[in-house]
Design brief:
138 residues, mainly alpha, 4 helices, two-stranded antiparallel ribbon
Length: 138
Amino acid sequence: MHQYLQGMPGLKERTSTGKCKPTNTDQHGTALRTVDQHEGSINTRRRDGFVMLEYTPGTDRWCPLYEWLNFIGGKITDVPATGQCRWLAFHATLHNIEDGFNPFTQEVAEAANELKRQSINGIIANLEDEGRLHPSDL
């Protein structure tokens, strides 16, 4: 999939250096510490029909959303709930654009449809290999 998206016209590679301002994780209360963890052993915890087998706390510091978005040059974009909104959101995220989405323009619709076509073609192209490598998963 990666090689298909890399071949898309208009993609630019960006690099950035810097740090997010650390925040105090104690302000989040005990919500982060709801799962018991014992070093070297597997814990099980049942909740809502799910079994959590293992929990490893994050090693990174929390970063407020807008600082993180500024750091990576990202934008928040609202897309209309049209049933194809995931492709519109994927297109907005991939190209870091926010204009032409609500209501979406013909240009945005065509670009999102092209992205959808390329993504699905990549998935279909890999199905034969996936079936050969993991036949029990298909």
